[in-house]
Amino acid sequence: MAVVTPAAPAPMGTRRKVGWARARRYVLPLVGLAVALAFLGPYIVMVLNSLRPSSDVVQTPPTFLPRTWQWSTFGDVLGDQRFLNWLKTSLLVATSSTIIVVLVAVPAAYFTARFRFAGRTAFLFLVLVTQMFSPTSLVVGLYREFFELNLVNTYLAIILTNSAFNLAFAVWILHGFFSSIPKEVEEAAHLDGCSRFGTLTRIMLPLTMPGVVTAVVFTFIAAWNEYVVALTLMLDDAKKPLTVGITSYVTGYEQHWDQLFAASIIAIIPVVILFAFIEKHLVGGLTAGSIK
Amino acid sequence: MWVALLWLGPALLLIIGVVVFPAVQLVRAAFSRYSITGLRLGDAGTKNFENVLNHSSLATVLANTVIWVVVVVALTVLISLAVAQFLAKDFFGRKVVRWAIIVPWAASLVITAKLFTMIYDYYYGTLNLILATLHITSGPIDFLGDDRWTMASMILVGIFVSVPFTAYVFVAGLNAIPDDVYEAAKIDGARPWQIYWRITLPLLRPAMVVASVLNIIYVFNSFPIVYTLNDRNPGFLHDTTITFMYKLAFKSAEKDVGMSAAAGIFNVLLILIVVVIYLRTLKWQEQED
């Protein structure tokens, strides 16, 4: 991308700079459009394919635009009991996991950010190691554990898994936010007779709201998008989350491409809205938590 | 000490119960024999590990993993640097571009992977349609079926879904560089590329370390892309160690839980070693406060 380095070495000096300043008003938005299209392109194909019958998706020669527009797919999918079951699971699992992560990560992050104690380094190291594991690499161990606990095919199993594996990131981010707030703020609260817990909920949490919001959104999205553990542990069709469920629209036996894509779009929209909502904090949250 | 347990207890419980315990289970499973339905039959000694090491596809799978991780991470970092530099500029419509870039990050990997199976399709795929419309190719390419193309096709999707997160980390890194540093350099007569090479890149180092480490972990552990795009190819010709492990336990003819667990242990060790080596070479020290 040539535009990335503006004001290229200019032997002509100011005259060229003026020319560039005028041109960049048009060039930058155009490059922006190209970049946006590069990232949105595949999803535009997805939208177009959800608006045509499945038989039109798989017809040669392929066409960019639908040969017949079919607007009913979204309604069909939303009225499909199987889809509603998957949606319910996804909502239940993502919400529960997020609540657990916040309740567990906030005290841990706060305490490690504020106090020195025996085992503090060990705890932070444990969190760091957790970050390195993914449910994928441990999926066989997870399966064995839940198999022996008789928890295969239960919501509890995937809620716990999602909570545990997103805990590290939340602790990491929140630890950074809590550390960045001067101790004096808390000491003042203390002098005014605020308890330790009161300081956390009434002083620290409001000050670190961007961090909490970032942790919440990240956990929710990670749980919403989780695939491997649900694929392995959830055997009942009705208990599958969206990610696993919608793949059964297109299998070796039946191909409902229109429904697959419509369902995918319905699954993506809430997440994109959540992300756009914290876009500003997204950057701040990542810096505070990870780049020190 | 007891106070600490009160605050950290729930976190410890969760980590020990759902991360450490499964890890122990994984080790135990790796030394056990299992029936095809998953019942433990007895000790297997080191037999499972030997089976993995002697597996006829191991070399292919390892080579695939190296290519997959190195190429995806390297190109992701390079492209993200350019994208971040661009996004840090002020221009009309910047907000829209930022939102557009969020989409591949926000979308579930399975969904994106399924979408690409259609885009890459030999008969109906949009990519072949585009290439034909632009007269770049004379006939359609079987991106997912032709062995010469499968890995490249998967890598492209891998980069596509990794760039958004990485670019955002770099934007954060760029924003953290104070403006007066640039002004001082300009006053000293530094050229733009000198400024980029001597000032921007070195100051971006912390962001680069974070982005690279996280990307190595994510890409190495990435399951849905390789699993979904490679779905119809039999055998392990295009599998990485992660999908190899999964198929051993749940998909292959053997359904061998013990052997899969042994492969899983190799996976965990491999990623630990890679990350440690990477951090060592960067002489990174964990700075506490």
Throw out a few tags for this protein.
heterodimer, A: mainly alpha, 14 helices, 72% helix, B: mainly alpha, 2 strands
In brief, what are we looking at here?
The complex is a heterodimer of chains A (292) and B (289). With 292 residues, chain A is an all-alpha fold.
Write the layout of secondary structure elements.
The complex is a heterodimer of chains A (292) and B (289).
Chain A: H1 14-50, H2 54-57, H3 73-78, H4 81-114, H5 120-132, H6 139-148, H7 155-179, H8 183-191, H9 196-207, H10 209-225, H11 228-233, H12 242-245, H13 257-277, H14 279-290
Chain B: H1 2-30, E1 32-34, E2 40-43, H2 47-53, H3 58-87, H4 94-106, H5 109-119, H6 126-133, H7 147-175, H8 179-187, H9 192-203, H10 205-221, H11 224-229, H12 241-251, H13 257-281
Antiparallel strand pairs in B: 1-2
Strand coverage percent of chain B: under 5%
Low-confidence stretches of chain A: 1-10
User: Low-confidence runs of chain B (pLDDT<50, min 5 residues)?
Assistant: 284-289
Mean pLDDT of chain B: 85
Fraction in beta strands of chain A: under 5%
Could you tell me the number of beta strands of chain B? 2
Mean pLDDT figure of chain A: 83
Greatest chain-chain interface? A-B, 108 and 101 residues
Number of contiguous helices of chain A: 14
Please compute the radius of gyration of chain A using only Cα atoms: 25 Å
3D structure, described in words:
The complex is a heterodimer of chains A (292) and B (289). Chain A has helices at 14-50, 54-57, 73-78, 81-114, 120-132, 139-148, 155-179, 183-191, 196-207, 209-225, 228-233, 242-245, 257-277, 279-290. In chain A, 72% of the residues lie in helices and 0% in strands. With 292 residues, chain A is mainly alpha-helical. Chain A contains 14 helices and no strands. Chain A is flat. Chain B has 289 residues and is mainly α. Helices cover 72% and strands 2% of the residues of chain B. Chain B has helices at residues 2-30, 47-53, 58-87, 94-106, 109-119, 126-133, 147-175, 179-187, 192-203, 205-221, 224-229, 241-251, 257-281, and strands spanning 32-34, 40-43. In chain B, strands 1-2 form a two-stranded antiparallel sheet. In chain B, a hairpin with a 5-residue loop joins strand 1 (32-34) and strand 2 (40-43). In chain B, helix 2 packs across helix 13 and helix 10 runs antiparallel to helix 13. The longest helix of chain B is centred in the N-terminal third of the chain and has 30 residues, at 58-87. The two termini of chain B are 22 Å apart. Mean pLDDT of chain B is 85; it is low at 284-289. Classes of the chains: A mainly alpha (292), B mainly alpha (289). Chains A and B meet through helix 1, helix 4, helix 5, helix 6 and helix 7 of A and helix 1, helix 3, helix 4, helix 5 and helix 6 of B.
